[in-house]
Amino acid sequence: MRARIVHHGIRRRRARRRRALWTGGEALVTVGVVLLLLVVHQLWWTNREAREGARHQVEALEREWGEGGGDDGRSAGRGEGLGDDGTTTSTQDGGTPSASEPRRTTNSTPTQTTWSQAYAILTVPRLHLRVPVAEGVGKESVLNKGYVGHYPGTGQPGQVGNFALAGHRNTHGEPFRYVNRLAPGDTVEVETRSAVYTYAVDRTLRQTSARDSGVIRAIPRSRLHPSYGYTAPGHFITLTTCTPEYTSRYRLVVWGKLVSTRPR
Q1: Which CATH number covers residue 255?
Q2: Of 74, 103, 150, 168, which one is the catalytic site residue?
């Protein structure tokens, strides 16, 4: 019986193929591990970190108010649109406010607080949510901290107009993850140094364009869905976030009306 002859060239080619397959497999495993770590970071670590930071900020505000400090007044440029996660796409000056720019109180007295400093606490009993509210809706300066951001140029708590807020629905604390579960009559509280304002959820716009800036106007009304919104002045609150989940293509909007005010 004749012995099978294997040439050295064939052996070398087979060895190269095995090495290539092994190297490719290692590369795929490495890429998979890196992607898994990125997913864990986005879906778990950013939430853990932001929630912890937001909790500490709420506690700091409560201590500050208990000692008689703090400032309720806020004002800023005019917001014109809704960006990612509900952020405005422009302001009165056509840009994002500087973090060093002094904020003004309702009587136009400048203060030295920064744009991203929290100044109120939002509580939504149905969602077991209690988070700080900061001026501005920038991702890095406000939303990624797990805070809820106040749209510059919209009303303030308890005032005639629209107290409009934005928050992440996914990652970075995701305070507005379940705002779609709010139903008419559910309460939303905004606590400041001097008072607690209670709003009752009135209606929801399940989906609209990120450019639908009408939803955060003083008399909120969708420009794309005119049957959603209001036609007369009032004391409104607006909660905005991205929809569907894990995307930023559209916006989900929840509106409420002021029903009571009590001293803190």
Answers
A1: 2.40.260.10
A2: 168
